[in-house]
Amino acid sequence: MDVLEKIVSLSKRRGFIFPGSEIYGGLGGTWDYGPVGCLLKKNVKDEWWKDMVSLRDDIVGVDAAIMMNPRAWEASGHVEAFVDPLVECKICHKRFREDHFKEFLKSVPVGVGNVAPKKEYQDLFICSNGKPHALEKLTEPRVFNLLVESLIGVTEPKEKIYLRGEITNGVHVNFKNVVDSTRIKIPFGIAQIGKAFRNEITPGNFTFRSREFEQMEVQYYIRPDEKEGEKWFQYWKDNRMEWYLKLGMKKENLRFRDHAPSERAHYARAATDIEYNAPWGWSEFMGIHHRGDWDLRRHQEYSGRDLRYKDLERNEEYIPWDIESSAGVDRSTLFFLIDSFVEEEKRIVLRLHPRLAPYKVAVFPLVANNAEIVTKAHTIYKNLKPFFSATWDDRGNIGKRYFAQDEIGTPFCATIDHQTLDDDAITIRDRDTMKQDRVKIPNIVNYIKDRLEK
Ligand SMILES: [Zn+2]
What we know:
This protein is of the alpha+beta class. It has 3 domains: about 280 residues, BirA Bifunctional Protein, domain 2; about 55 residues, no CATH class; about 100 residues, Rossmann fold (3-Layer(aba) Sandwich). It has 14 helices and 23 strands. The strands form 7 sheets. Strands 3-9-10-16-13-12-11 form a 7-stranded mixed beta sheet, sandwiched between helices. It has a 5-stranded mixed beta sheet with strand order 20-19-21-22-23, sandwiched between helices. Helix 2 packs across helix 10. The longest helix has 21 residues. The relative contact order is 0.11. It binds zinc ion. Zinc ion binds next to loops.
């Protein structure tokens, strides 16, 4: 079994992630988070919100509707962008026009190895495995409409709408509302976490490429100025990389990949991805994009509303530039899972950062048939719950309970034994070192808090 298969199997066995609508045979490209998976994912989002919004003065949040006026998707270019027949690579999922690909075929002997395609083709036509794209690895050409459509209204004809293909537009369309309703001043950001939907032709690699997924984004609005643009682009690159490292991702599994000019959208001034060294190859799960004033200018044009910002300090009016940082919640969650997965001789352990771990502490009565121990353990458990996400286990023997908690990454296991009844102390066992500490009951909360802060 490769690592991904092991993660998929662990996810199902322990309740992280299940295939969507499984009892009906599933629905391709959808996934359901189970009891511990939804906690892990929520912790990723909570940590993100804390660092992006709660602890900062320059970023505020919004929670915009998934369904939007279809004009918004015309403004963003999503509707028109998907009318050309495209082919998609089944390996790296890059899409390109079939006629462009045929020109490329004429220019190089594909599949012969050591080819040097023309420079303008290089980024587009070289696959993630470093080889040139071959025809048999591509899907049939078709008109891709990435946007998932729906119908609303009770009378016919119903109105066609789109489920949002990205969450960004819900922020831009509220730019004016946010400026007018808060005291926030440029430079400032608007954060949002929410679901988005895409008609992926080839969903795969577990939750990595799904039809329904969640994003967490900040649109950071700045003065339209080249130096400001460079400064904030670099700032968000560093800030975001640092965030994943702080939460325990291994440095060697992360890298930046700058987009070549040919890959960038025409309006993008700079773009870089943060990629993770996934079992199937380096994969993008977060992007930092210098989008200039493209989005707000388009929404201004399509809505007819004045979206300029009045800079009272400089006595100027302008459409701000936007430095976007956009991360996949599901992708981040998946990579935290993969990155923390360790197989030891006698156990599997998820070395998740304690702040991300679904449960911070598991409470065990050493034996299930001693009423005094069970009652004491239950009282401790109830008293811990207001402070930490906690779980209870009184099945089987202690070894089996440790084994189960290690597999879901619980950093601390607290055991109440016969001695507890005499000395008012319990044993706390550390997930990573497997060392045990004896801790007095009144000190348990502080003991765990101290270790979580580290
Ligand atoms: Zn490819």
